Amino acid sequence: MIKILFVCHGNICRSPMAEFVFGDMVRKRGLADQFHIASAATSSEELGNPVHRGTTNKLKQYGISTAGKYATQLKKKDYQEYDYILGMEYRNIRNINRIVGSDPEHKVSMLLDFTEHPRDIADPWYTGNFDKTYDDILEGCEGFLNYLISQNEIEMR
């Protein structure tokens, strides 16, 4: 089982969007049983809050529910529990490394590092542009899934 943790600042916009988009993607391809997918925050300011309504509304357009998801915080022990820890922007990576201590197993990356155009995913909390965030996350999730396939980490059926 491949264990993936998507991480952003507050765990109410980008990382839960990635969690649910990637989960939907692998479910539709019949691969869901090969994954454990979650998301977390580097900060504590949104802990316990539900997914932001902008993310919820955007995902609802694609039939994806965020019901039952509440913001949680990344913990040092998560480094040992997950195979991949994927941040949304360079500040997330800096904060992930601060929390986990170091990355000797090279588990920490930015989600869009798995695409042809590595870059930050802008935070829609500030931009208000959930459409652009969704497009970037979809691109990143597709790139990451293709990476896993190319590395023979997934049993294709």
From TrEMBL:
One MF term in the entry's GO annotations: protein tyrosine phosphatase activity
Catalytic residues in the record: C8, R14, D123
Reaction(s) this enzyme catalyzes, per UniProt: O-phospho-L-tyrosyl-[protein] + H2O = L-tyrosyl-[protein] + phosphate
Record InterPro entries: LMW_PTPase, Ptyr_pPase, Ptyr_pPase_sf, Tyr_phospatase_low_mol_wt
EC number in record: 3.1.3.48
Location of the Phosphotyrosine protein phosphatase I domain: 2-147
Protein family: Belongs to the low molecular weight phosphotyrosine protein phosphatase family.
Record protein name field: protein-tyrosine-phosphatase
Lineage of origin: Bacteria, Bacillati, Bacillota, Clostridia, Lachnospirales
